[in-house]
Design goal:
Layout: E1 4-7, E2 10-19, E3 22-30, H1 33-37, E4 61-64, E5 68-74, E6 84-87, E7 113-119, E8 124-130, E9 141-147, E10 162-171, H2 177-185, E11 191-192, E12 197-198, E13 202-203, E14 218-221, H3 234-238, E15 243-246, E16 251-258, E17 265-269, E18 274-279, E19 282-289, E20 291-294, E21 299-305, E22 312-318, E23 323-324, E24 334-341, E25 362-365, H4 371-374, E26 381-384, H5 393-398, E27 410-420, E28 428-431, E29 434-436, E30 456-457, E31 469-477, E32 482-488, E33 499-503, E34 508-514, E35 517-518, E36 525-527, E37 532-534, E38 541-543, E39 563-564, E40 566-569, E41 574-580, E42 585-591, H6 594-597, E43 602-607, H7 634-638, H8 686-717, H9 732-738
Parallel strand pairs: 4-9, 10-16, 15-24, 20-25, 25-26, 27-32, 29-31, 30-31, 31-43
Antiparallel strand pairs: 1-2, 2-3, 5-7, 6-8, 8-9, 10-14, 11-12, 13-23, 16-21, 17-20, 17-22, 18-19, 18-21, 22-24, 27-28, 32-41, 33-40, 33-42, 34-39, 34-41, 35-36, 37-38, 42-43
The chain binds copper (II) ion.
Length: 740
């Protein structure tokens, strides 16, 4: 793209040069019709971003259950490699189509294409996104809807008049996503380069850190947002906002998908209750709610009814930030979309939220805080954690909740998603104190590499790891037993964040939920939950009460728990999952905050022995044998959603529905390049400031010393393994394949 300007009703291509500290506009050339078509307005700021078929958000893909999907991805980017994950798809029999770079496939290099082919299953609201690097929020994500088979319609929910996609995501106008990940990698996000100001992290209801790394991040709905703040620019106020149309007494199914990079949102519609009917492809017993908490990676189906006075109502996406880093109260950040009754005139809403009262309390679904923490901030609000949201009887009958028949029939794994390190020395994202590092060749294509202890490690063999354990962390599970996974988020630090954890290739029942200990007076977290005993290094854990072993955990919901593929672990709490690991393959399990996942908060779940895994197709592209793009096909490249003429595509398998009433974010107004620097910051007292500066100086000195040590180690140890020749320890035959 290029910077564009909007002046007196005309869009200009702006050519400017900076001389010294000032920016000189050299020329303004009006945009051509074709160029106008390609303007994506988003929040009204100029930003480098990615697009699929020139669309943002990426096109919505719709299939039917059990249909064979064939999608050809052509990497037309100049420098970045890419791979696509079909989030929520089981990939039964096709683990190499899961799209995880260096786990299921080699990344697709610029100029190359790769055809994904798999069976669409299970039905429900899913999505697709890049699974290489950090490009998801900046455009490489879209809805992936699997409709039930013809005639397999739900009868337990009211009729749906309109079925629409609602993609919610955070958005950072100033920094690129790579920069945000980089900040996280070096834990400098509290001294953000983009804001130049100290301490931008906020806290949520229980005092844990909000997962939004930058509090100003505005939420986008289907790629749109609009500012109503007096301090914002004309263009930020002029860009269109997403509008969902409903008719009086009509109904709307909103397929809400959180495609964001870092932040969770609390979604509500003024003066309208939401009927929660599904999540992550699982059908839920319909439940009325007022607020939906949604984290990156999750999807929820909610119905809205035109049962109020025809008019215009705000749809609110609020952050859950209520305290600054130093525990001073702050107002949560709010972004908007709009619910419009077609009988009413088009206007900006002047609606207010319903007040939650003792007699009519509000209901907050997927609430991951203790009710004792929530009540201080959200009075008269019922906290419904995810394990209390119920699957429909039909769903449980189709996928029974796995119950072990004997001690031997259960395999239990404790996985701690945390930051390893101390409060003072840069803690890093990890699982069981192991920082995930991708293998040199994709596991699914070279499964025998799991036997190589210089690459793969786990907690059974920590001898090769040392203090700072960074490797391809693989946890192996058997295909024949009931699996119980206990997810935890404990690091022994004074504060941290909750983590939304996604499992590929499988879904699980969420049977129990536990939160940390809350201080009765302050309502803030004061320590870890009391049900789990952690080893001092947080590498392993066990139930404090041994009678909880062998799957005998009290108060589990094994009758009708929800089926999920992404679940939030409360900070200092835990979640218990039950599943049948019947799908052999290498499946990534990771925190869905890109800032955590990209720098090590991930683990590979190996289901079954390589011998049990489906056989790789003979002509499957290995890293060196990707076909070059040799058939110029401008249609499929330039997009506009047109189907490619290639025979890789099952034409009738791909329906492209209009995403929502509002369409995409095509040009209505644009603005020039980015000038704003108004991050909301905390008021920092002089004392704190001096202390922080001293710590910072100490940190810099320590860091320099550490860097010298690391650089010297790096140069002598690891350079040969990173040679462009590829992984030097695999056998000669494979090495030839891998070489370019
Ligand atoms: Cu995380």
């Amino acid at each position: 793209g290029f910077p564009v300007d909007y002046n007196n009703g005309t869009f200009y291509k702006k050519i400017s040069k900076s001389v010294g500290s000032t920016n000189h506009v050299c020329d303004q050339i009006p945009l051509t019709e074709d160029e106008l078509e390609e303007v994506l307005t988003v929040d009204g700021n100029y930003k480098f971003m990615f697009a699929i078929n020139n669309q943002f958000p990426a096109p919505t893909l719709v299939f039917h259950d059990q249909q064979v999907v064939s999608i050809r991805v052509y990497n037309d980017m100049s420098n970045e490699a890419v791979s696509f994950h079909w989030h929520g798809m089981f990939q039964t029999g096709s683990p190499w189509m899961d799209g995880v770079s260096m786990v299921s496939q080699c990344p697709i290099q610029p100029g190359e294409f790769f055809t994904y082919q798999f069976v669409a299953s299970p039905p429900g609201t899913h999505w697709y996104h890049s699974h290489h690097g950090a490009m998801r929020r900046s455009g490489l994500a879209g809805a992936f809807i699997v409709l039930p088979k013809e005639g397999d319609k739900r009868e337990d929910i009211p009729p749906v008049d309109k079925d629409v996609v609602f993609l919610a995501q955070d958005w950072q106008a100033a920094a690129s996503d790579i920069e945000v990940v980089k900040e996280m990698a070096w834990l400098m996000y509290s001294f953000s380069k983009s804001s130049g100001k100290l301490g931008t992290q906020m806290r949520t209801y229980d005092g844990s850190i909000s997962s939004l790394t930058h509090p100003i991040s505005r939420a986008l709905v289907n790629g749109k947002t609009k500012s109503f703040s007096a301090s914002d620019t004309e263009n930020e106020k002029a860009v269109p906002m997403e509008i969902f149309n409903v008719t009086q007494n009509g109904s709307l199914l909103l397929r809400i998908i959180q495609t964001g990079m870092t932040g969770e949102y609390k979604i509500s519609i003024d003066q309208h209750k939401l009927l929660l009917v599904g999540s992550d492809g699982g059908d839920l017993i319909p439940t009325w709610i007022d607020y939906l908490i949604i984290n990156p990676g999750e999807t929820y189906d909610v119905m809205v009814f035109g049962n109020n006075t025809p008019g215009n109502y705000w749809i609110r996406l609020e952050t859950t930030e209520v305290l600054d880093f130093f525990y001073n109260p702050v107002q949560p950040n709010v972004s908007f979309a709009q619910l419009h009754y077609q009988e009413a005139e088009e206007a900006l809403p002047d609606s207010e939220k319903r007040e939650c009262t003792v007699s009519e309390p509000c209901v907050m679904a997927n609430c991951h805080w203790s009710p004792d923490a929530l009540k201080r901030w959200e009075p008269n609000t019922k906290c419904v954690p995810i394990n209390e949201v119920k699957s429909t009887p039909k769903s449980v009958a189709q996928v029974p909740v796995p119950i072990p028949t004997s001690e031997n029939d259960l395999q239990e794994v404790f996985l701690n998603f945390h930051f390893s390190g101390s409060d003072l020395i840069s803690p890093r994202p990890a699982v069981n104190t192991i920082h995930y590092k991708g293998p040199p060749v994709p596991l699914q294509l070279y499964p025998n590499i799991v036997n190589d202890q210089t690459v793969v490690c786990n907690n059974q063999d920590m001898t090769t790891c040392g203090d700072y354990c960074q490797c391809t962390h693989v946890v192996k599970l058997s295909t024949s037993k009931v699996t119980q996974i206990v997810l935890m988020a404990e690091d022994g630090l004074s504060t941290g964040t909750a983590h939304p954890v996604h499992l590929h290739g499988n879904r699980y029942y969420v049977v129990k939920y536990g939160v940390g200990v809350i201080n009765e007076t302050s309502g803030l977290l004061q320590g870890p939950n009391q049900d789990i005993e952690y080893s001092p290094d947080y590498r392993s854990a066990k139930w404090r009460n041994s009678s909880w072993n062998n799957g005998n955990i009290p108060d589990m919901n094994v009758k009708d728990p929800p089926l999920k593929d992404t679940v939030v672990i409360p900070y200092k709490g835990y979640v218990v999952l039950r599943l049948k690991t019947e799908n052999p393959g290498f499946w990534l399990m990771h925190c869905h905050l890109e800032t955590h996942m990209s720098v090590g908060m991930a683990v590979v779940i190996q289901v079954g022995d390589p011998m049990e895994m489906p056989k790789l197709p003979d002509n499957f592209p290995m890293c060196s044998s990707y076909p070059a793009y040799n058939e110029p096909d401008s249609k499929s490249k330039s997009g506009s959603g047109e189907k490619s003429g290639s025979n890789h595509m099952e034409d009738d398998a791909l329906l492209q529905l209009p995403s929502t009433d509002g369409g995409s974010t095509k040009s209505q107004s644009v603005r020039n390049s980015y000038h704003r620097d108004d991050y909301s910051i905390m008021n920092i007292s002089v004392g704190w400031f001096v202390l922080m500066m001293i710590l910072m100086v100490l940190f810099v000195f320590g860091f320099c010393a550490l860097s010298l040590v690391l650089i010297s180690r790096h140069c002598t140890w690891t350079f040969p393994a990173r040679s462009r020749r590829g992984y030097h320890d695999i056998d000669t035959e494979e090495r030839v394949v891998f070489s370019k």
